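[step 3/7] fold_predict: job queued, chain A
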Amino acid sequence: MLGKRIILVGKAASGKDNLRKRFETQGFKYGVTYTTRPPREGEVDGKDYHFITDSVAEKMIATNLFYEYVHFNGWIYGTPISEFYGSDLFIMTPKGVSKIRPEDRENSFIIYLDIDSETRLERLKHRDMPGDSAERRIIADDEDFKDFTDFDLRITNSNF
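[step 4/7] structure written:
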């Protein structure tokens, strides 16, 4: 891949999808990842995620189809190798970022959306989250983002 890939990282309701869609309107190709979590209202299979079962995800892991994958909040999220090298825009977790190879990290620009908890909690209260709760996401994210420093740009303004 020539040029850089952009990787968006942020806690729940930090604005990752909003920023992703803005990049897409500028011609960036979003790397659609796989997940075992249930779809949220308005999410489209194959556009937002590829929604798969646990057994399909485990087979993909066993056959080394993922560039990186993580277990987060009881679900599996994974970026296929083909998407990682064929796209230039991604959403990842800190654990996903930690799995990026050094030579690929050189060609990646990581944007950390570090939005305050109060704003995120208010947004989460208005989100349909099958199998999850706002409180659980806040707690899981606090643990997931503890000591996260591998980013190139940090955005703290919730109205970016």
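[step 5/7] annotate
Residues 2 and 21 are 22 Å apart (CA to CA).
The longest strand covers residues 66-72.
exit 0
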